[in-house]
Amino acid sequence: MHRRAAALAVPLTALALAVSSCGSIPEEWRTPAFLRMDEDQLDPRLPEVSGPVGEEPEITFPDEELPDEEISGVVNPGSGEDELVRADDLLVANVASYQWTGPGEGEAVEGQSSYETGAPDLIRMNQMPEYITDVLVNQSVGSRMVYVFPPLSEEETAQAEAAGQEVPEGASVLVLDVIDRFGNGSVVPGEQTSDGGGDLPTVTQDDVSEPVIEIPDTDAPEDLVVEPLIEGTGPEVEEGQQIIVQYTGVRWEADEDGGHPVFDSTWSRAGEPFDTTIAEGSVIDGWVEGIVGQRVGSRLLLVIPGDLAYGETAEEAGGGPAGPLVFVVDLLGAYDNPPPVEEAQEPAEDGEDTEEASPEEDSGGQE
């Protein structure tokens, strides 16, 4: 999950970040008791979830004792057969959290619904345990899943309390709606209407291959240049949103061999889409100024002067590639961020680590 508070009240997040009270999931939770969408019916112990996918779900808790194992199932399969979830996808999902406190009784967990915050979660499938992904893989975008996690044992409760974590009452329930998916090699649709050229770099990109960026034998522009190579038709990106992109970056200035090798690229990581907050302090200023206001679905050529990137002496300081930089960015998606953690929990102490992104202000790569 992306930037959602890690707490036992949010089991899916806790699982993804491995911050549950005991550091691992009890063995007796590891046998999912779900029935897949092509079987006759869901496990009868699951809460009844109704309402259209994409809207706040309505949930009715069974009038029976709480389950003692994890159970899950697909309560509303999507219809898009050409948009099936894969095991290495980056998913965009709405997630709502509930506590099932007793037979026929339960309640929503305050502040733990993306329908409430207006900010969906980003879920990397390859970072989730199998008993989460088994339900998701091969389901369509537009599907709705429900997960039930049993109450904590006495030992787990003691461990959670000792760690200062809030202990949920009863069983924890998650309802997850799959909004969109981005797979390895995802690119924006459409054909390039421009390849740059002239005094700008020339960009060649075929299908889902890494773009080839040719730098002209001229001085770099003094100001930021944003050249749409494919003009998207989606919503405009707003500062502070979380964006999903493919990108490749090279230096304008040639190396000692006269070349312009790639210094950072999602394509060097199997084309795995990259997500970050597009805001000052999260990425270099050239990305903020160049991407905010652009439309989702665009492929952008960004020529960024050194003072909007890592600086002219960045390499000497060990902070990334120096001088003017050139990026080709496929703007795949943009979504609102959840409210700051400080609004839901105690304020973070000064100096606490915050999530940074590549290309970040002090580093030229994601590593």
Secondary-structure blueprint:
Elements: H1 11-17, E1 48-50, E2 58-60, E3 71-76, E4 90-102, E5 105-113, H2 114-117, E6 121-124, H3 130-136, E7 144-149, H4 154-162, E8 171-182, E9 202-204, E10 212-214, E11 225-230, E12 242-251, E13 262-265, E14 274-277, H5 285-291, E15 299-304, E16 325-335, H6 341-344
Antiparallel strand pairs: 1-2, 3-7, 4-5, 4-6, 4-8, 7-8, 9-10, 11-15, 12-13, 12-14, 12-16, 15-16
Describe the structure.
The protein is mainly beta. It folds into 2 domains: 11-182, Chitinase A, domain 3 (Roll); 202-344, Chitinase A, domain 3 (Roll), CATH 3.10.50.40. 10% of the residues lie in helices and 28% in strands. The strands form 4 sheets. Strands 3, 4, 5, 6, 7 and 8 form a 6-stranded antiparallel beta sheet that branches. Strands 11, 12, 13, 14, 15 and 16 form a 6-stranded antiparallel beta sheet that branches. The model is unreliable at 1-39, 343-357 and 362-367 (pLDDT under 50).
List keywords for this structure.
single chain, 367 residues, mainly beta, Chitinase A, domain 3, six-stranded antiparallel β-sheet, 6 helices, disordered N terminus
* Number of helices, where a helix is a run of at least 4 consecutive DSSP H or I residues: 6
Whole-number total of structural domains: 2
Structural class: mainly beta
CATH topology of the largest domain: Chitinase A, domain 3
Apparent shape: elongated
- CATH domain class name of the largest domain: Alpha Beta
Outline the low-pLDDT stretches: 1-39, 343-357, 362-367
Mean pLDDT: 83
From the N-terminal CA to the C-terminal CA, the straight-line distance is 20 Å
Q: How much β-strand is present in the residues?
A: 25-35%
Helix content: 10-25%
What is the makeup of the main sheet? 6 strands, antiparallel
- The number of distinct β-strands equals 16
SSE succession: HEEEEEHEHEHEEEEEEEHEEH
Question: How is the quaternary structure best described?
Answer: single chain
CATH architectural label of the largest domain: Roll
Rg, Cα atoms, Å: 23 Å
